[in-house]
Amino acid sequence: MLTALHHVAVICTDYERSRRFYVETLGLALIREVYREERQSWKADLRIGASQLELFSFPAPAMRPSYPEATGLRHLAFSVDDLDPVIARLVDAGIAVEPIRIDPYTDQRFTFFSDPDGLPLELYEHR
After folding, report:
1. Which domains are seen in the chain, by residue range?
2. In the structure, how many helices (H) and strands (E) does the chain have?
3. Is 44 exposed, middle or buried (0-12, 13-18, 19+ CB in 10 A)?
4. What's the superkingdom here (predicted)?
5. Which of 11, 68, 101, 106 matches a 20 to 30 Å C-alpha distance to 114?
6. End-to-end CA, the chain
């Protein structure tokens, strides 16, 4: 029986840039970081609530289409208490954020932005 989401894995093209984005800009806590020589790959485990985001680098990873909507993972959504300060922090960091929308089924506010490789990310206000 499934009990929780343990982690989501993301492969990036520029490890240092993506590490800074997820740790410094989004504020995820670094649990551990290792370099796997045999794969020429960095791996960072980042804490987000009770779950983790695994950040990987590989030499010349293939790009996955995000737009138009492609089969597979659509986006990652992060829960926030208040959208406004998080959006302000992203904008101050030079990150484009879409206009706030209202979920027609829950009446909650949400918006989208992208990570350094164009992976769609969502902020979902949970009040």
Report:
1. 1-60 (3.10.180.10), 72-127 (3.10.180.10)
2. 2, 8
3. buried
4. Bacteria
5. 106
6. 29
Q: Which two tokens stand for residue 58?
A: 């590989």
Question: ω before 104 within 30° of 0 (cis)?
Answer: no
Block means of pLDDT (10 residues each) for the chain, 127 residues, are: 90 96 97 96 96 94 81 89 96 98 95 94 92
Q: Which two tokens stand for residue 8?
A: 């989501």
pLDDT at 64: 82
The pairing of strands 7-12 and 51-57 is parallel
Q: How many CA atoms lie within 13 A of 119 on its CB side?
A: 20
